[in-house]
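Subject: TetR family transcriptional regulator structure
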Amino acid sequence: MSADDDADVPSPRVPRGRGGRRRQEILDVAAAAFATRGYHGASLAEIADEVGISAPAILHHFRTKEGLLTALLHARDAEDADDGDGGPARASSRPQGLAYLDHLVETVARNVERPGITQLYAVLSAESVTDGHPAQQWFRDRYVGLRALVERALEEALERGEVPAGTDVEQSAAAIVAVMDGLQVQWLLDPDQVDMVAVTRRTIDALLAALVAPPAARP
């Protein structure tokens, strides 16, 4: 990952002043390290060396390596809230019904412009399935929340008559979230060959077309 990519990894809002700037610098370097080497592969010593401080100095700000990771995950939450994906508390500010699926495609387009964030998320989410990973619960909760947002949008679409009665909103939501995450990995591995925005749009359109197709037309 290039230096330009590193610059777009998320950073939480930190206090102003020298201590806040140092904390911000540690977070930026740690985010790039976790994105390229994973949580277990990146050491505090390496992060400290790149920042130009000692490992104990990092612990002064975050106490533990796990605390550093937690700060980065909170940054992701804050960024999602700014984008209007902050969960039920921000439900009134997000698009309703099928318009929310268009919003998801716009989110994918933003992710193309911030590969560092996308890579950090992809690496940590994959790592989190391993036993004892400190981010496991965070990602479990995040997927529950993401599916719930899409489910709610599809329920709104049902209420508006935008999709047929009987649509399985839970399975449809899980499929949409799975496609978005899977495409991130493919795109990170081969960005010149995988058009993440176009494929997301095509997949959502295909899902909606299948929902409205008469039963006899379905395989």
